[in-house]
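User: Can you help me understand a structure? I only have the sequence.
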Amino acid sequence: MTITLTMKENWELWGEANQNSYQTPVKEPFEIISEMPKQLGKGYVRDIEVHPELWLTIWDCEYHDDVLMKIPEWDHPLQFCVYLSGKVIDEYGGQLGQGYTCISGSGVQRQMISESTKSRRVGVDIHLPPDLLATFFPDETGEIPQQLRLLVKGNDWQTLLYPETTTAIEGIAQQIINCPFQGMMKRMYLQAKVLELMALQLAPILSTQDQLQRSPRLKPDTIARIHLAKEILRSRFENPPSLLELSQIVGVSDRTLRRGFQELFSTTVFGYLSSIRMQQAEQLLRAGKLSVAEVANLSGYSQQGHFAAAFKRKFGITPREYLSGKRNILAS
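Assistant: Let's start by predicting it. Here is the structure, written out as tokens:
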């Protein structure tokens, strides 16, 4: 059986269950334990503020059924995730668990559907505002290092990365879950382990970027196939193939396609598609012969509201403002 929920419905279920949530004893006022909604399964979630605005969530939940989650477009914080059991996949090919961790950059999360398999989910999530990167991992000037700024997108589409799970990452996650301390020592211990886990997840990303500056990591044949995928998206942007379909057309795995786009074009497949659509929309609006609704439809958007939001993120003004002559566009 598969249960389908919107993110709002999921939060409401947890909110009802949270009426039975309780705060740990006074010696640990920074920790809250919440029971899993009985409609979904059994287990609990522990939320711990290990540092002001830096939250650690520890999952130990068993789902009775597969769950499809309809996630809307929303402003997402910076998040690091590691699962020791269980798996979550999304419609764009991303996978958390069973070999992969996840780093969700801050910015606008695109609308998507994710699937949690019927299983026991054990793992940790770390949530923080992006400016804390400069607190914990500053460059020589005290700012967010250049290599990590892809995780800070503001009003632009967030960056999603899926580093592989290593033995070291699994070990730190296990130590976090099985913390041997109580009280303030517990908070100090978890703060150190959280930073260590974040550093381990970031390490291969920084290493990959260093390698990219020196030489390409993709084989010539793979590079050619990814360029072909780019041209397919350009020619079919109004009704593009899904990520899986596109990878099958050009003959590479969806993971290779995602990685290749990031390496060759410094953007995601979705980000490139959005950029093409915005270029088309700007040209059509500049011509002044079509309405905003007609331009939205020709640019591949079925909902005018989504088109308007995307256009404003890209150019700083709404399509109607642009059409009316306010063309002092500030491209993002």
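Now, to help you interpret it: The chain is about 40% helix and 25% strand. The two ends are 44 Å apart (CA to CA). Let me know which part you'd like to focus on.
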